[in-house]
Structures are given as C-alpha cells and as structure tokens.
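ESCALATION

Customer reports they have been waiting on this structure for their group meeting. Please prioritize. Original submission:
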Amino acid sequence: MAAQRNQRGATLIELIMVIAMFGVIASVASVFIKAPIDAYVDSARRAALTDAADTAMRRMARDIRKALPNSARIPDSQCLEFIPTKTAGRYRALVDASPTSDILNIGALDSSFNMLGHNEDRPADQQIEAGDRVALYNLGVFGANAYTGDNTSLVSGVVKDSNEKEDTILIAAKKFLLASGGKRFYVIPAGEQVVGYVCNGNGTDAHGTGTGTLRRYIATLPGANSCTLPVIDQNNVTSVSIMASNVASCNFVHNVSDLQRNDPVQLTITFTDSGESISLYHQVYENNWP
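Update from on-call: job pushed to the front of the queue and completed.
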C-alpha cells in the first residue's frame, strides 16, 4: 500500500502547460514552413497553367499547319476557323501515250482523273477514301471558295492500275473553273471537314481564376461561318470539345495578304488560376500556296 501511495501521474495543470508549449512550438515552426509550402503550391499551379497553355497552343498550331490554303478566317478576335487537309497530290493535266491516261478537265464536267503515284503507298492516315473531298486551287474568293463548294467534289472511290504509276480518283461530277499552276489538289478528310477554335475568355472571378474556356469544334461542308458563340447551336457543327479551361482572355489575328504565300496566324491566350497568370504568344504560318 505504501508503494502505491508513492506513485504519481501528471496533473491537469501539467498537461495544459505541455499542450500550450506544443502550440507555441508549432506556431513558430509554421512561420518557417509556410513559405516553402506556399512556394511549392504556387510553382505547381504555374506549371499546370503553363502545361495547359502549351498543350492548347501546340494542338492549334498542328491543325493550322494542315489547313487548306487560304481557308483560315477569323471573324473576330476570339474565333478561328479553317478547313483541314489529310494529304495532297498532283493530278494529270496532259494526255500521254498510256491508254488509261485520264486528265482532269478544267472548265468541263468531269467525274474522274488520274493522280500521280499510288494511293496505297501513302501512310494509312493519308490515304484517299470514299467520303473525302477533293479541293482544287482554293483562293477563298467567289468561284474558288471551298466553304461554299465552288472548287470541291466528293470522292466516291480510288481505282488502282497495277500496270501504271497512277491511280484514278473517282469524284462526283464537277466543273472546276480554275486550274492549279502546280497541278496540285488537296484532300479534305470526311471526318473533319471544318475545324474551328472558339475562346470565350471574359476575365476572372472573385478568386482570380479565369472563367473562360477554349473549345475545338468540327463542322461540315458546305456551310456558313460557324465561328460564333455558342457554337453548339450551329446547325452544321457536329461535335464540340473543351481544349482548356481557366481562360482569362484570347486574341487571334490573321492578316490576309495576296502578296504573302505564308500568312502568319497570331495566337495569344492568357490562363489564370487563383491570381497566377500565364500568357503565351505563338505565331503559326499557314501555307497559302494553292
């Protein structure tokens, strides 16, 4: 019994003092820990914004480089629209000694022509298929405007002649009015006839985060300008996908000039998240050699 009376525990006052001391130590330590943690969070946020901006810019640049010559158009500073291409080739314009020679008749109704080379020799994603469209000498003007179908025709098939170095492209009967100086034609894929990017960047919210989005849409030909908001309401738009969020502002510029064969498309997008902003500027050259 005497041994038990000599055993003592911590009193309530001692526990309170220990807890208070730990609180003081934690408060002091947090002063030194907070700054590195905040810096890490800020760095991670900036990295995420930069990655989102860079990914969006690269995707837009890749699409623009594949655009049909003279098809890029910007009705306002937040809308960009163009006609993509999957491949290009050269058509036969003169008759040779071959009995299967089939020229493309300019100015007359024609439903087939020979393409120099074999379609099957191209990569799988560049082979011409039924449902694609052939575009010839697109200038973006009346009579040579792919958006209105002036200079395009639907592909119905490709016929290979094993004894020749040319394939025959079958198309819906079409009268092409203008010949290409380089005897060149472009192929518009069936699945993506028109591609556009719409940005509705309109500032930030109370937390300093961008409230806009960058959207990519696919539309069909022929069709009127689909580059408006909201694009989902346009009749010829088949799909819309969000490419990036947290967009604070956008500015697209395209200075069209007949004297330039490589017109630059200027893209500026600002992303903002919790007060952190990343602004990227990218200049993409569109090949306008028809």
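Sent to customer with the following note: The chain has a mean pLDDT of 85.
Escalation resolved.
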